[in-house]
């Protein structure tokens, strides 16, 4: 399967560095939590920063994890592989940085609200938990 086959099934696809971002089809994604890239072995890589397993992500658009491995590459030279490896890493990093920028704003707003003695309702707490999970996930990508 080519990466285009996955991209064509996603919503909100945008070019991001050497990869793409899109709305994750496996959860109610209001922001672009999904990072897509092509790995050094030609595999299609998909990473949801809200923590959806890759099987759920591809399953939600009628594909299987095996489809991601089916890509055929013309160029198997070490240089081409290294180039694809770097592209996949850059795509993940730029997605992680965007997630951090967005979700840290949510965490900062919550910190400010605590400082002001504001009360949190269930939705606020759920959104804060989501932000914390995403920040955690982005940190793992950036420090791997
Ligand atoms: Zn997701």
UniProtKB/TrEMBL annotation:
GO terms for biological process: DNA replication. The lineage of its organism: Bacteria, Pseudomonadati, Pseudomonadota, Gammaproteobacteria, Lysobacterales. This is Uncharacterized protein. SUPFAM superfamilies: Zinc beta-ribbon. InterPro entries: DNA_primase_Znf_CHC2. One of its GO terms (molecular function) is zinc ion binding.
